[in-house]
Amino acid sequence: LKLDPMPGLGLAPDASLRGSVIHEALGRFAMAHATSLPAEIAAELLGNARAALSDFAGNARVAAFWLPRFARFAAWFAETEAARRQGTTRVLAELPGSIVWHAPAGPFTLKARADRVDVSGQGLVITDYKSGANLTALAARAGRGEAPQLLLEAVIANAGGFDKLDAMPVTALRYISASGGEPPGRVIDVKSDDLAALAASAKAGLEQLIAAFDDEATPY
Q1: pLDDT band at 132 (very low <50, low <70, confident <90, very high)
Q2: Lowest CB count within 10 Å: 72, 158, 162, 211, which one?
Q3: What pLDDT does residue 84 have?
Q4: DSSP-derived pairing of the beta strands 124-130 and 170-177
Q5: What is the DSSP letter of 102?
Q6: Closest Cα to residue 29, out of 69, 73, 66, 61?
Q7: Nearest CA among 45, 73, 26 for reference residue 180
Q8: For residue 148, which of 138, 162, 134, 158 has the smallest C-alpha distance?
Q9: CA 191 – CA 44 distance, rounded (Å)
Q10: 158 touches 196 (CB < 8 A)
Q11: Buried b (16+ CB within 10 A) or exposed e, 204-217
Q12: How far apart are CA 110 and CA 108, in angstroms?
């Protein structure tokens, strides 16, 4: 039936759950305020996080660490979000997309779900939210084509594969840290002189990998 397994009973909340809560809180916020910002940004974000964590409200780790850290991030987000939205017409969250291309063994479908896509007259900014990664190193790897997630999302965007969006150029790829530590939040862009060429290189690399595994002589 392709159902996802439910978490085991009595398991302590872990880093995976924390990341999911952060994504859900920010996703709900963007869906509710796609074209304009509310007066109380931080309070609404924190309310979204509390709702997502309602089943774990009595857990000591959640009460003592997760919510205070998210509150710090929410305050940072509230101070900086207006500047990020300068020039955008709308912000889309948890946006599914896909493209299909021919491979040696038949059609291959690449699917993705973008955490956030900012739409403007110039093109798209695709953002990936992170709760604990070393973003400086991750952005550097993406700029060298070694961390292909955002690059392949750009490939989908360039081809018009995202829901609710026509094919548009991608003007920036970025990571936003939601750690709530020091600093509580941070934005790091993927640096490249030619994002379209970098995305095309990532696509070519994936096509080579698919062709290799479509070969019956390649072991899995």
Answers
A1: confident
A2: 211
A3: 96
A4: parallel
A5: E
A6: 73
A7: 73
A8: 138
A9: 32
A10: yes
A11: eebbeebeeeeeee
A12: 7
